[in-house]
UniProtKB/TrEMBL annotation:
Protein name: Solute carrier family 35 member G1
Region described as Disordered: spans on this chain: 40-67
GO CC term (a single one): plasma membrane
Presence of keyword Nucleotide-binding: no
Keyword Endoplasmic reticulum: yes
Species for this entry: Clupea harengus
Start and end residues of each EamA domain: 121-252, 274-404
Length: 418
């Protein structure tokens, strides 16, 4: 069943039917095998395999530059001339080169091809998000004669237009999983209410004070997660909550603690209290939204969550505007452009915040978001010509300390787990 080919190219055949003879080089030994199927009479089904055992002369031959790659490869070639698989060059184990190398070369190349994000890129994204959100609050403060609900409606409208192509591209659908729709509805309802309350607070009280109170939502998120998600609550969470409430009290300065004469307010005290209550309620609403997002986890695409936020927020704003009779487009062209900028900057802020959380841990991102408070005080001084009071600075220090403590606690906890 086999033929022995000597070094001179002669063939010693034990079978009268030889499929092919491969010329050999000096010093080479080739053994030709023929695989025969069960039906020996069917010569068309016979295949010829050859095993090339190279000796030292083969290496010398190759070094002279006369070697042929097709001849140097060990393996098999069938009769019809189809290309053969390359075998293991050292062990003659019959494995392909990819198997012999263990696929290590390809995996190394894949790992090298993977783009590793630059160090600190997530923090840069978080900084950009803080800048855009602070600009949105400043523009809401600068615009005049437009109700906060109408500003929210315009933002929701543009956000909805922006997210539709992305949902079509990622094929997320418009309703979401059946068991998650109630959570998506609550996320949209509570999130849009938090936005409306923040805009209302900015219009009723100093920009920095409204931002500080709204920024206290991480502390309330920890408490609500302990109540509804059964997450662990430590003594530090209680301390951070106490610091946050102290900061809110220092900013609000209620009469039963600070007396009837409260100085340094923007407008009358009644508007200040309304703004404080709206900002506090907005912070709680934002905390509820975060708890719902944790509950949904990764089972719902982010753009689907934004879609519910925009659609439900727009519907809610339209109903409220007709109920309040406050629907009116700004008469000034500048105010109209400001409203469009509020929508675009809000979308940009959400995009950068999402990118930051994709490439960086939540703890460092939350710490970087404290820049919101600093930018609020800077913008208030530069563009609104208003100096902050010592009470506001003290309240901001309490709130920023507590939220930073929550972020550091999460960062340390996640680092220990990894």
């Amino acid at each position: 069943m086999g033929d022995y080919i000597g070094s001179n190219g002669s063939v010693t055949s034990h079978d009268s039917k030889v499929v092919s003879i491969v010329p050999s080089r000096e010093g080479d030994i080739r053994v030709v095998f023929r695989k025969v199927d069960d039906d020996a009479s069917d010569d068309d089904e016979h295949l010829t395999d050859r095993l090339h055992l190279s000796t030292q002369s083969q290496d010398n031959y190759d070094r002279d530059g006369h070697g042929d790659d097709s001849e140097m490869a060990l393996g098999s070639c069938n009769v019809n001339g189809s290309p053969s698989k390359r075998g293991c060059p050292l062990l003659c184990c019959g494995k392909d080169d990819a198997d012999y190398t263990g696929g290590g070369g390809n995996s190394d190349r894949k790992e090298e091809d993977k783009k590793v994000p630059c160090s600190g890129l997530g923090l840069v994204y978080a900084l950009m998000a803080s800048l855009f959100f602070s600009l949105v609050a400043l523009l809401v403060k600068k615009i005049e004669g437009v109700h906060a609900v109408e500003i929210s409606a315009i933002r929701c409208f543009f956000q909805m237009i922006f997210v539709i192509p992305l949902m079509i591209y990622y094929n997320t659908g418009f309703l979401g999983p059946r068991n998650m729709r109630i959570y998506l509805f609550l996320r949209g309802f509570l999130g849009s209410n938090a936005m409306i309350l923040l805009f209302y607070a900015v219009q009723q009280m100093p920009l920095a004070d409204a931002t500080v109170i709204m920024f206290s939502n991480p502390v309330f998120t920890a408490l609500l997660a302990w109540i509804f998600l059964k997450e662990r609550c430590t003594i530090w969470d209680v301390v951070f909550t106490a610091f946050t409430l102290t900061g809110v009290i220092l900013i609000a300065r209620p009469p039963f603690l600070f007396g009837e004469r409260v100085t340094g307010l923007e407008g009358d005290y009644q508007s200040h209290i309304k703004g404080t209550a709206a900002a506090f309620a907005g912070a709680v609403g934002a905390a509820c939204t975060m708890v719902i997002l944790r509950k949904m986890g990764k089972s719902v695409h982010y753009y689907l969550s934004v879609w519910y936020y925009a659609v439900i927020g727009l519907a809610e704003c339209v109903v409220m505007l007709f109920a309040l009779g406050e629907w009116s487009l700004p008469s000034c062209g500048t105010d109209r452009w400001i409203m469009m900028m509020i929508a675009v900057l809000g979308i940009a802020g959400q995009t950068f915040l999402t990118k930051a959380l994709q490439v960086e841990k939540a703890g460092p991102v939350a710490l970087m978001r404290t820049i919101d408070v600093v930018l609020a005080f800077i913008f208030q001084f530069l563009f609104l010509n208003r100096k902050p009071t010592w009470w506001s600075l003290g309240g901001a220090l309490c709130v920023v300390s507590s939220t930073s403590g929550v972020a550091l606690k999460k960062w340390i906890s996640s680092t220990r787990k990894t």
